[in-house]
Design goal:
Two copies of one chain form a homodimer.
Chain A lengths: L8 H13 L1 E3 H8 L3 H13 L3 E8 L2 E8 L1 H19 L2
Antiparallel strand pairs in A: 1-3, 2-3
The structure holds a DNA duplex.
Amino acid sequence: MFDPLLHQNIRSKLVSLLISNDELPFKALKETLGVTDGNLSSHLSKLEKEKYIAIEKTFEGKRPKTMVKIAPVGRKAFEAYIEALRAFIEEN
Amino acid sequence: MFDPLLHQNIRSKLVSLLISNDELPFKALKETLGVTDGNLSSHLSKLEKEKYIAIEKTFEGKRPKTMVKIAPVGRKAFEAYIEALRAFIEEN
DNA sequence: CAAAGTACTTTGTTTTGCAAAGTATAATAT
DNA sequence: ATATTATACTTTGCAAAACAAAGTACTTTG
């Protein structure tokens, strides 16, 4: 079974981005993924709930800034997911 | 965007099985995938609706037998999906 | 200081994914 | 002969997911 948290269009790319960039602001994720604020927000919540990512709320001057980081659990899960995909591809 | 019809746990495996075996009976799919009848039935309907597969209802003696075959659209889509996965893996 | 913008979150609706229940026929036991 | 169980599915109902629209809380700008 592919990890259902990762085997989804937006989340697989989201986590992939976080693996490559280690941390990214909400806005950058939103623009790169081409999703609405609400949609991104709920995907982030889902990933945070399972400790795949960590969300840090800071301030950039006076404006709120949400920083999203990959967490150890998420990194491991993603690696396993990529391995699973690789195995799936091999047999196809 | 990964093809949402294929980027799903059960359906990706289902179509993969059909690519390898060309045609399979309902029962074999059900057992191999480890899903309930209802669940399989609805996934098949979804794939059939988009012409990814073809469903043939025949009789084995006096009992109904549902045969599932991969269709050209499905084969192409699956190949493209595998390519997309490959590309995704490459960059991760 | 009103209007518009920024950075999100919450709410509401549609779509999925699934199991339980239903349908129809066949085989088997009584 | 007929009730019971089994086979092969499909339909229904419901909980969870995915998404956009609306809401919240500020802040900057005209």
